[in-house]
Amino acid sequence: MVAIIAAGELVLLVVLGILLIRVGHQHAANRRLERDEQAYKKWVNGFTTGLGGRPAVVILEPDALAGLTNCRGNAPRQARLRMLSYAVRTIQTKNDQVYLDAGHSNWVPAGQMASRLRAADVAAAYGFSLNVSNYDPTDREISYATALNRDLGMAKRFVIDTSRNGQGNAGGRVHLAGGSVSRALPGVARGALAGRLFTDPNSLAADWVRAHPGAPAVREIRRRIANQPTAKWFGAWSADIAAAVSDYTGAASAEHKVPVLVAYDIPQLGCRGNSASRAKQWCNPPGRQLGSVPQVLDDRGDMGLWVKAPGESDGDCGVGAGTSVGEFSPLIATKLISGRS
Questions:
Q1: Which domains does the chain have, with CATH numbers?
Q2: Which residues contact 277 (CB under 8 A, 6 or more apart)?
Q3: Cα–chain center distance at 322
Q4: Which bin fits 62, alpha (ψ -120 to 50), beta or left (φ > 0)?
Q5: Which of 23, 91, 100, 316 lies 20 to 30 angstroms, CA to CA, from 147?
Q6: What radius of gyration, in Å, describes the C-alpha atoms of the chain?
Q7: 74, 79, 81: which is closest to 38 by C-alpha?
């Protein structure tokens, strides 16, 4: 039997077919979002279990809010905001200090970032973090933090990553404001922050120092990098997240120190990462230098911390040519120490 379809009916069938395909794709996308959200909540729950009520500083999802612009469509943007809100409300406790990442001063205008922070429940967090893995001067980031608090309409504390921003800014010459800084961390006095933070004896820098006792650069790398408290990153590579976090915070607790951890596992949801066209600005650029060591920046307890570990490569690029992401490079380390290309 041969079916005869009029021209108008054929057009209608084609249109209906296209609509059904689009609806099917949307349903599939929604199901993926739901699965990703549930998986992330499970990961956050494991992270929180690993903390075990021990005091910790947590930098939450670097780049996630700043990269919101790269999410294709409203659904993944809203899903990301919901996930960040869940992480804030789950991880933040009376013992832990959660800093929701807010990018840096050269990325998203303060008013726009303040709106994103509010949508991700920064009100429930201890504060926000800035300049993670970036090179902006400390004083510029402090100005951006001031603008964010103004636009937020609330005074949230902040953390600035000072690990690699020593070139062309205050570096070790940051002037601390007067007054009490007891709110930064329990037992912290001015200038004593580094002594309260946990220094990982098994960091990549420390491992390299032990493996190369006779290397010419070993003394300076040990003193200037391996012996400084630096954040530990946790993500998809951490396997059993509860056990990994528990081991790390337990080691810090045994030394009566406070660890700094980075929670970095939010699903991409089709949101693009760092632009390859701007890689020269962020991927192992030359002429950078170590910034000020971890310290309290002002009388409110805002802190400069080493969140990105100096010497660990951003990838096969810049002065890290031939290295892989996260690999410790003594060449990168020594260039950061000297500040020369």
A1: 56-338 (3.20.20)
A2: none
A3: 25
A4: beta
A5: 91
A6: 23
A7: 79
Specify the length of the chain in residues. 341
How many whole angstroms separate alpha carbon 328 and alpha carbon 331?
Answer: 9
Chain centre distance of CA 36: 19
Return the axis-axis angle of helices 74-91 and 110-119, rounded to nearest 10°.
70
Question: Which residues fall within 8 angstroms of residue 216, CB to CB, at 6 or more apart?
Answer: none
Amino acid residing at 110: A
Residue where the block lists tokens 């840096």: 104
The torsion angle over the Cα atoms of residues 277, 103, 328 and 225, rounded to 10 degrees, is: 140
Burial 216-251 (b: 16+ CB within 10 A, else e): ebbeebbebbbbbbbbbbbeeebeebbebbbebbee
For tokens 């580094």, the residue is: 194
Report field, pTM of the whole predicted structure over 0.85? yes
Question: Using one digit for the tens of pLDDT, what is the confidence trace for 51-101?
Answer: 999 999 999 999 999 999 998 889 999 999 999 999 999 999 999 999 999
Rounded (10°) CA dihedral 202, 207, 213, 217: -110
What's the sign of the alpha-carbon dihedral 26, 32, 38, 41?
A: negative
In angstroms, the Cα distances linking 300 to 127, 140, 163, 297 are 12, 18, 21, 8
User: Percentage helix, strand, coil, to 5, in the chain?
Assistant: 45, 10, 45
